């Protein structure tokens, strides 16, 4: 006897939509149990975790700031994954974007610059991320190298490049040999949008990207091509779509978006370059992309949800004195439930008698 | 009187006001203290010891403080965590890493009613103090012990980044070692991380393979010491008492003690005497101590204690002249002593250390 998973003939559309919500509900139930086990009032704990971050303007702005890089990166990844291109290296593309944009900020440091600087930095960041993402695309289409491995390994290349730059040529001469660049000048810092918070132009950019990506996927031939190549490569070939060209396109888009997120983060929240510039956004965005069902609007919702859990975790540490590990458990549970729900909705477990060998 | 919406609102407002008043009265008695950590509480090194300091402060001051730790705060999240601490009524905030120096410097003027303390930063502000410990004093003692213990006459140093803090630590280890045996050598591997157990262990392995038989480490965790234990050489613990991680290899550890300082600073805020001080305490003031000596002979122990007591009493100073750079230029002559600013900015190895500074 063994357990096999059989693909269900069809899964109702409503169930597909409900699956992530079911996963969130299960996570919440687990959260209640965990909080109760840790001696906290579950209702109060859930309020601190999920409601408080959304309860005032400052909190909402912080959620937006935290969600922006996750949404930007995950929308790009969703396009990639839809077309069966597995870009795991968004973290590296994020860092290269930060370096490319940061390079411009450092090159103009102390020199006369103007309002052109910020847009130019954003373009540099997006270009840097896109070019870096084209390396795995090239290796895949030209040599058949597995893009999961190459894109992942390029993350370490990007990390070490940043490490070298900030310890070597870009190091702040007044920085006590610490691996940091000088702080960016005001012109090179992403403009804030509201008083009393850190909301910056990154958030409207991310929302625009979500809209554009949703239109691209739902209303254009390119979107159809992406879906077709991913779901039925043979049919796509018959339709005259080039899978190789599409690989280049989606890698460039997702790398560009990750790079844009990188420069926005470097010039927005950190305001300098240093090795710890990303708390794993490129990897967390993979979770966001799947949680959002590889759909741009879904990515937006999932990105905001994950941002709330991150900030909720900080609140829980500050107001409930709960350790950080509790959040990590949460996020792990959440992904686990998402995958479990998906699997059980799309597949049916069945016991089969093993055939005598 | 009819119960209108307005009276209801007024009643609710009064209730809320009373609740706030009650909270304020409580807050006046209790000082909320925030501690922001760069790593996890469980690193058994730097962040762990700051958290231990927070605990000790709470023990010492009891009900007068209410302390909060936020761990593994990455630079992009720092502003939010500090702002949230301020918003939840924390009036004294310790930001425990050099990486937080620039952002603390940026945030402190925005919250003039809050007192900030940055560990290992170089400059103060009206509401921002800085503090650090003279860890080099412990390094000198390590050098003395290492020279006694080493048969290969070579010390291995698992270094983090080529920052002055680490460079002067390596120099002092060698100063201590040379005071016993002028033929002592050092080998250095830079792991370019404060905490990365896998790389730390690799570095330790490489150093042992190159003939080092006593390991010093500047990283946060016990990995190099554990490897020393496995390979049958000696090593020193860093930040906390690491005897239990390496019962056969451990000689001594520099054990950080931030708690007394934290308690003193919290007391200063409570009684209104807080000033933006620049504190650099050593063995003498108890900012750290040497953990129990293990795997050492009674003679070695008594020598280590003699050196420790001399440093604590100020009769032995690890940065006495003459100090000559690797390239042969003299920094200070016999009879002189480096100033704190010179120590903090140290950017060169001593003559006799044939290791290059990267970058």
Automatic annotation (TrEMBL), chain A:
Sorted UniProt keywords: Cell membrane, Membrane, Transmembrane, Transmembrane helix
Main subcellular localisation: membrane
Keyword Cell cycle: no
Taxonomic superkingdom: Bacteria
Keyword presence, Transmembrane helix: yes
An example Gene Ontology molecular-function term: transmembrane transporter activity
Protein name as it appears in the record: Sugar ABC transporter permease
TrEMBL record, chain B:
Keyword line: Signal
GO cellular component terms given for this protein: plasma membrane
Keyword Iron: no
The UniProt record lists the keyword Plastid: no
Domain ABC transporter substrate-binding protein PnrA-like: 32-308
InterPro entries on file: ABC-Purine-Binding, PnrA-like, TAT_signal
Designated name of the protein: BMP family ABC transporter substrate-binding protein
Species classification: Bacteria, Pseudomonadati, Pseudomonadota, Alphaproteobacteria, Acetobacterales
């Amino acid at each position: 006897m063994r357990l096999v998973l059989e693909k269900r003939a069809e899964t109702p559309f409503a169930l597909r939509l409900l699956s992530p919500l079911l996963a969130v509900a299960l996570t919440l139930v687990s959260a209640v149990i965990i909080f109760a086990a840790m001696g906290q009032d579950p209702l109060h704990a859930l309020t601190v975790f999920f409601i408080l971050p959304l309860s005032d303007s400052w909190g909402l702005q912080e959620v937006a700031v935290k969600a922006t890089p996750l949404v930007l990166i995950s929308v790009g990844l969703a396009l990639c994954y839809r077309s069966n291109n597995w870009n795991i290296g968004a973290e590296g593309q994020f860092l290269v974007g930060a370096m490319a944009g940061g390079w411009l900020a450092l090159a103009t440091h102390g020199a006369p610059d103007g309002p052109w600087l910020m847009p130019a930095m954003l373009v540099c960041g997006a270009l840097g991320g896109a070019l870096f993402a084209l390396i795995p695309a090239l290796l895949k289409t030209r040599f058949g190298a597995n893009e999961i491995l190459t894109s992942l390994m390029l993350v370490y290349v990007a990390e070490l490049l940043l490490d070298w730059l900030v310890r070597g040529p870009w190091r702040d001469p007044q920085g006590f040999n610490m691996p940091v660049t000088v702080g960016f000048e005001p012109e090179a810092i992403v403009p804030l949008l509201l008083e009393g918070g850190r909301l910056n132009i990154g958030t409207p950019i991310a929302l625009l990207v979500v809209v554009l990506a949703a239109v691209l996927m739902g209303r254009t031939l390119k979107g159809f091509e992406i879906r077709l190549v991913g779901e039925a490569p043979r049919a796509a070939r018959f339709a005259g779509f080039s899978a190789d060209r599409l690989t280049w396109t989606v890698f460039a888009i997702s790398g560009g978006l990750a790079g844009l997120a990188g420069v926005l983060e470097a010039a927005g929240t950190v305001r300098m370059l240093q090795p710890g510039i990303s708390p794993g956004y490129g990897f967390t965005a993979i979770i966001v992309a799947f949680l959002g069902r590889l759909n741009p609007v879904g990515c937006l919702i999932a990105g905001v949800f994950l941002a709330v859990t991150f900030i909720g975790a900080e609140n829980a540490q500050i107001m409930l004195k709960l350790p950080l590990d509790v959040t990590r458990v949460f996020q792990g549970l959440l992904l686990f439930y998402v995958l479990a729900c998906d699997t059980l909705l799309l597949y049916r477990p069945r016991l089969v008698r093993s055939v005598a060998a | 009187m009819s119960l209108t919406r307005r009276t209801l609102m007024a009643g609710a407002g009064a209730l809320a006001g009373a609740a706030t008043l009650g909270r304020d009265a409580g807050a006046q008695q209790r000082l909320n203290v925030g501690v922001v950590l760069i790593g996890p509480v469980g690193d058994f090194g730097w962040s762990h010891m700051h958290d231990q300091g927070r605990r000790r402060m709470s023990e010492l001051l009891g009900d007068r403080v209410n302390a909060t730790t936020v761990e593994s705060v990455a630079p992009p999240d720092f502003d939010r965590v500090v702002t949230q601490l301020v918003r939840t009524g924390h009036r004294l905030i310790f930001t425990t890493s050099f990486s937080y120096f620039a952002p603390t410097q940026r945030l402190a003027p925005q919250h003039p009613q809050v007192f900030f303390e940055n560990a290992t930063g170089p400059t103060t502000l009206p509401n921002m103090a800085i503090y650090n410990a003279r860890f080099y004093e412990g390094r000198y003692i390590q050098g003395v012990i290492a020279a006694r213990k080493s048969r290969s006459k070579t010390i291995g140093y698992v270094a983090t980044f080529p920052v002055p803090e680490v460079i002067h630590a390596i120099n002092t280890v060698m100063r201590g070692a040379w005071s016993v045996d002028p033929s002592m050598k050092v080998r250095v591997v830079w792991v370019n991380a404060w905490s990365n157990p896998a790389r730390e262990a690799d570095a330790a392995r490489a150093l042992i393979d190159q003939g080092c038989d006593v390991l010093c480490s500047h990283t946060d965790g016990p990995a190099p010491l554990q490897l020393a234990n496995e390979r049958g050489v000696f090593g020193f613990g860093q930040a906390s008492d690491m005897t239990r991680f390496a019962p056969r290899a451990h000689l001594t550890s520099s054990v950080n003690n931030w708690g007394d300082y934290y308690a003193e600073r919290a007391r200063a805020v409570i009684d209104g005497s807080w000033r933006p001080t620049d504190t650099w305490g050593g063995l003498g003031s108890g900012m750290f101590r040497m953990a129990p000596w293990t795997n050492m002979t009674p003679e070695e122990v008594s020598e280590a204690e003699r050196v420790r007591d001399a440093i604590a009493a100020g009769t032995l100073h690890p940065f006495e002249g003459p100090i000559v750079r690797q390239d042969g230029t003299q920094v200070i002559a016999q009879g002189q002593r480096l100033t704190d600013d010179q120590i903090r900015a140290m950017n060169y190895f001593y003559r006799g250390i044939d290791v290059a500074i990267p970058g």
